[in-house]
Design brief:
The chain has two helices and no strands. By secondary structure, it is mainly alpha-helical. The protein is rod-shaped, with a radius of gyration of 25 Å.
């Protein structure tokens, strides 16, 4: 994956935490920050997917409620 050099200004305590985490894990400061941003991106994607699945489930329930009367007309012995 291509890399892009950027300059970021962080509060001292955040930069210190990134440096400490990098030291403890044997990674670079850049790797720690990149991993943190990737985690945020993944969490946002998971949130959006969950939101979409909930919307789809709601739509499926509405469809089922509307379709049930038609299904009972088509299949009189259907017990729902």
């Amino acid at each position: 994956m291509a890399r892009q050099r950027i300059t970021v200004t962080l509060p001292e305590d955040v930069a210190g935490y990134a440096d400490e985490l990098a030291r403890l894990t044997g990674r670079t400061r850049s790797a720690v920050i990149a991993d943190a941003i990737e985690t945020l991106r993944r969490e946002e994607l998971e949130r959006l997917l969950a939101e979409g699945y909930r919307a789809l489930a709601d739509e499926s329930k509405r469809f089922a409620r509307r379709a049930l009367p038609l299904a009972t007309e088509t299949w009189p012995d259907y017990e729902g």
